[in-house]
C-alpha cells in the first residue's frame, strides 16, 4: 500500500471515530459535519470526500456496529458437542457484547436517530437482520443433523436473542438500568437455553 493510501485510510478512520464521539455526545440531529471535521482534525471537504452525507457516515458506523455484533457470535456448528454447550457459548458472547458501554451508547444514538425517520429505521432493521446470521446458520445446521425441530431458523434465532435482550438490552437502553451481574447473566443464559431446547430440541 502506498503512503497516500495509508494517510487516506487514517483520515477515514479519524472521521469515523470523531463521528462516533459526536453522535454519542450530542445525538444524530444535533451533530454536524462541521463539528465532525473539527473533531477529526480534517477539512470539511475531506469528510465529504469520504462520506457524501451525514446519513452515509451514520450508516457506516452502524455497519461497524453490526459487524461487531456478528464477530462476537460467529460459531460453526459442531456435531461432536452437545447443543446446550455450543449454544451457551454463543449466548454468553452475545450478552458480553450487549453489556459493552460503547455498544449501548451507539445503540441509543441509532434508536434515537431512527424514531423520527421511518426510512432510516427500515434501513437499520434490514442491516440488523442481515447481520444476525451466525445463530440462524447454526440452528439450520443443527436441524440438518436431526437435533432440532423444523422451525424457521431465523424465527428461532430471533426468539432466543429476544430472551436475552429483554433483560440485557432494552432495560439498559430505555430505562438506564445497570448491566447484569455475572450471576444474573448466568441465570438469563441458562433460562434461555432451557426454554429454547424444551421447545425445539428433538
Automatic annotation (TrEMBL):
An example Pfam family from this entry, by short name, is: TetR_N
Q: Which GO terms describe its molecular function?
A: DNA-binding transcription factor activity; transcription cis-regulatory region binding
Positions of the DNA-binding region: 32-51
Q: Does the keyword Transcription regulation feature in the UniProt annotation?
A: yes
Matches recorded under SUPFAM superfamilies: Homeodomain-like (SSF46689), Tetracyclin repressor-like, C-terminal domain (SSF48498)
The UniProt transmembrane annotation reads: none
- Which InterPro entries does this entry report, sorted A to Z? DNA-bd_HTH_TetR-type_CS, Homeodomain-like_sf, HTH-type_TetR-like_transc_reg, HTH_TetR, Tet_transcr_reg_TetR-rel_C_sf, TetR_C_Proteobacteria
**Alphabetical keyword list:** DNA-binding, Transcription, Transcription regulation
Q: Identify the residues that the record assigns to the HTH tetR-type domain, covering every copy.
A: 9-69
Superkingdom to which the source organism belongs: Bacteria
State what protein this is by name. Answer: DNA-binding transcriptional regulator, AcrR family
Its source organism is: Pseudomonas lini
**Which taxonomic lineage is given here?**
Bacteria, Pseudomonadati, Pseudomonadota, Gammaproteobacteria, Pseudomonadales
